[in-house]
Amino acid sequence: MSASASLSLPFRSEPSGREMDAFCVRYAPRAPGHAAVRDLCRLLYVIPSEDREARDAWVERCIAWLREPRSASGLHEEEEPQPLAASRLKLLVRVLEGERATRLALSRLVGAVCAEAHGLKLFAQVGLGDHPGFFSELADRVLHRLLPTPPDPERFSDLLHLFPKPGDVTWLESLPAGPLARLLAMVGEPPPPLPDPGMVFRSYLVDALTLLGARIAAQGLTEEVRDRSPGMAFRASPFLRLRRACDSVLARNAAPDTLQELETAVAGCRSVTDTVTQHLEASGLSVKLVYRLDSIQGGLDRMEAIARVLGAAPGEDRCREGLTLILHLLRQAHEERSVRELAKTRLRLMARTTIERVGHSGEHPLISTRTEFHGMVHSASGGGLLAAVTAALSLFISKLSLAPFFEGLLATLNYASSFVAMQFLGFTLAARQPSMTAAMLAGAIGGKGPRPGRMERLEELIPCLTRSQLAALLGNLSCVLLASVGLTLVFHQFTGRPLLEPGQAQAVMDSLHPWRSATLAWAALTGVLLWASSLASGWLENFFVYRRLPEALAHHRGLQKLLGDTGAHDFAGFMLRHVAGLGGGVTLGLLLALVPEVGSFFGLPLEIRHVTLSLGALALAGGALGAQSVLTWGFLAALLGTLGIAALNIGVSFALALTVALRARDVSSQESWRLMRWVGLRLLKEPRSFLLPPASTPAPVAPPEPVAAPAQPEG
């Protein structure tokens, strides 16, 4: 019995030994006992044609055979060694070319699958969900993992059923387009009355273009998008042209000229979204608008990928474009079911919600001259003076032994009033700067892909930022030290006793010991709180801008009667300049005061270690214990602990802020590591440039490129 006949017998589920040997000798003469050939013979021996579940099971077995890690290369005399992913595919193609009956049976199977399934959901909906809310989406994804999945009538949309692992994408990507095109050509002509799979998929793609065009046009014509694309008449909107272009594609079955019209409309829609993004710097945005812009961009990308498939030449080119589209859909399908991807997406939205405004409206301490360096030191000195008073009041409040509520309330008023006073007086607090500098640094890095002049901007920006932080630290710490000693002397002069009791002063020293206490852990926690306060400041200013509160205040009738028209406008500008600082200062005061109280409520001994306040408290303790205590090992160890607090306050807050800022701009990990390596090499080569500005006046530093403003969190 010939091999062709052996593979078409319908009454046995396994080939006989003679049929197996004949098949293996014909298609693997160099290794007739190879497991890949024998498994393929069993797979092709009976190809189901009637039962739907049997067809589904056979397709899964076929893909599993193709995915086997053992290569099927070198089985034929004329065959050269092949890569692992290509060897089994080429073996299958060679067998089908030699087995007409098997080829026809497989064609009938493919035609039956295409006749009973639909692809609209696959091409138009997978990866383009609405994501109505974080918690509802999280619940859906968790339940999808825990509960069994019902069968999908549109089976083409359930790609994960055939490719359940993310690594399957890499395997599909490694398949050669040539053999894959030959395979599709052989099985793509089923006998009548079964439909032609090529025409079926073409109709799916055209329908998907029409549905995507209608959805994107509706999203692009919403009020939020139109209000942020000024100067464009409604009738001239590219989103209207996109809808008409999709109708033309549907009416003429994707003729080449209609695809060209569609490409022009898609480019116009991208131009509108770019314009909207540029205007967000001044107007802010909401989470709903962020989702809408992302959905428009994703839909336009999908439409371009579908148009490339429809416009590709039949054969290998179309197969390559189709495989690219399937890979994209498979990645999107995995991301739609991943809890981790949902968390990453939400983090990116949080980043755009907050960190952009921190870098946009926060302090911009670019120190490039000696004059600017001295100005920062003077500004930070004022912050150190207020911090010394704040530290003294904090220690006084702790001596009152009040109820936790009143102690937390007084501590909040103490911290918040100090930080708000610094904002109004133009003073600087060193530990609050890293969040601002991280946002500026990420703005200079920008987004994905090469950007001209990026390293040149960083070469000027990074040393300026490090000098600013050094100047702020010098001003804060030197002034808080002197002011604390001065407060101790003045208090002793008027009362005849030290500001702190000896027991309380010793407790302060012990609490700052770097290894006999948890002071370094509390310093890291304080760095997290500093970062959180910067998020609050960015969110509050975006809320202020997005709701157009400056315009509302400037035209408020009550304010105009009280302050006059000019006074109302001045007050609106004043609030716009200071709302971020006020929000950040009040939030930081709340966090510093309430976190220890909340920890105590849950039995957690949480404490706060802010470098400026800690050094002020240590100086007050040294003044209470006398000059001889300053030279003891306990005091020196506490001073060393204070330096550790400075490093952790700044390092943790900067690292968190930079991570979120990079996430907001979709900067890749490779680009981030490249930046770190470049900074390290520059630091080793020119360490002085990171500490002090040059003696001569350098060229002005170019500010980071403008970026989209943040979103207001909703829902």
Describe this structure in words.
The chain has 715 residues and is mainly α. It has three domains: 1-116 and 179-192, no CATH class; 119-157 and 195-337, no CATH class; 348-701, Glycerol uptake facilitator protein. Helices cover 72% and strands 1% of the residues. The protein has a two-stranded parallel sheet. The longest helix has 45 residues, at 557-601. The radius of gyration is 34 Å and the shape is elongated. Residues 693-715 are annotated as: Disordered.
In brief:
Keywords: Membrane, Transmembrane, Transmembrane helix. With 715 residues, the chain is an all-alpha fold.
How much of the sequence lies in strands comes to under 5%
| Amino- and carboxy-terminal Cα gap | 70 Å
Taken together, the total number of domains comes to 3
CATH architecture heading of the largest domain: Up-down Bundle
- What characterizes the major β-sheet? 2 strands, parallel
Give the strand tally. Answer: 2
Classification by helices and strands: mainly alpha
Determine Rg (CA atoms, Å). 34 Å
Quaternary class = single chain
CATH topology of the largest domain: Glycerol uptake facilitator protein
Please identify the top-level CATH class of the largest domain: Mainly Alpha
How many H/I helical runs? 29
Arithmetic mean pLDDT: 79
Helix content: over 70%
Please give the order of strands in the largest beta sheet. 1-2
In CATH terms, the superfamily of the largest domain is Glycerol uptake facilitator protein
Overall outline: elongated
Low-confidence stretches: 1-12, 701-715
